[in-house]
Amino acid sequence: MPQGALTSVPLDLSNLRVAITAGAGGIGRVMADSFAACGADVFVSDVDDAALAACGHRGMRADAGRVADLEAFMDAALSALGGLDVLVNNAGIAGPTARIEDVTPTELDATLQTDLASMFHCARRAIPALRQSGGGSIVNLSSAAGKFGFPLRSPYSAAKWGVVGFTRTLAMELGPDNIRVNAILPGLVDGPRIRSVLRNKAQAAGISDNEQTERSVSTVALRCFVTQQDIANMAVYLCSPFGATISGQAISVDGGMEGLS
C-alpha cells in the first residue's frame, strides 16, 4: 500500500442512499464497505451469487450486460433505499486481449455494453430519483485506458474513453439540478483482475509475467500499484460535502501514470 493511504475516509455520510453496480466484490465491494462505514445506506448488484451472500450488504443479482437486469436492479435499489443520493457505475469487464482483427463482434459488443452502455441505462433510471432528492452524485468508473491508448485492448479502451465523454456530458446536463457527475480513472489496481490482464498481455507479447509487470509499473511515477481502497476513498470523497463543487471531472488515481504498455 502506498505510504499514507487510508483504510477508509472518516466522514459522516449517514444521510446518503447509495446504489453500486458490481458492488459485492473487488473495487465495488471496497466502495460499498467504505460508504457503509461512513453510515450510508448501500444497495449493490453483482453477478456472483456467493459474493452477494457474503458481502453483508443488501442487493440483488444483476448482469450489467443485460438491460432488463440493470433496470430491475435500479427499481429494486430505489424501493429498498426509499430514494437515491448516489449512483456508482462500477460494473465492467476486461474484454479481449487481442489485435483488433482478432476481436470478434460478440466480444466488442459485450465489452461496450458492460463497460459503457450499462452506465447509460443505470443513470437513465437514477436521474429522476436524484432530482427528487434535490441533487446528488453519479460516479462512473473509467480507467487509465480512458486517457491513454492501450495496445491489444481496443474494445476496453474505447469503452473507457466513452465513459469520460459520457461523464462530462451528463455533468453539463445535470448541473442545474445539483447533480454532480465525475469519473474515476484507476491505474494499475492491485488484485486478481489486473494480474490476469497483465498475464494475458505477457502471453500475447511472448514475454514473462514478471517482465510485463515491470514494463507496466515502469510507466507509473510512483512505481507502484494502487489499492482498491484508494479508489474507494476517492469515490467517498466525491460524494461527500467535500466534493460539493466537483463535477465533470475525470480524476486519475494511478500513482502518476505516464502511459500504458
Walk me through the topology.
Layout: E1 17-20, H1 26-37, E2 41-46, H2 49-55, E3 58-61, H3 67-81, E4 86-89, H4 105-132, E5 136-141, H5 154-174, E6 179-186, H6 192-205, H7 209-217, H8 228-239, E7 250-253
Helix pairs in contact: 1-8, 3-4, 4-5, 6-7
Describe the structure.
The chain is α/β, with parallel strands linked by helices. 45% of the residues lie in helices and 14% in strands. The chain contains eight helices and seven strands, in the order βαβαβαβαβαβαααβ. The chain is globular and about 55 Å long. The protein folds into two domains: 17-187 and 227-251, Rossmann fold (3-Layer(aba) Sandwich); 188-225, no CATH class. The longest helix is centred in the middle third of the chain and has 28 residues, at 105-132. Helix 2 links the parallel strand 2 and strand 3 (58-61).
Q: Major sheet: order of its strands?
A: 3-2-1-4-5-6-7
CATH topology of the largest domain: Rossmann fold
The 3D shape can be described as: globular
**Total domains, how many?**
2
Biggest β-sheet, characterized?
7 strands, parallel
Percent of residues in beta strands?
A: 5-15%
User: How many beta-strand runs?
Assistant: 7
Q: How would you state the average pLDDT, rounded?
A: 93
| CATH class wording of the largest domain | Alpha Beta
> What's the CATH architecture name of the largest domain?
3-Layer(aba) Sandwich
User: What structural category do the secondary elements indicate?
Assistant: alpha/beta
Rg over alpha carbons = 18 Å
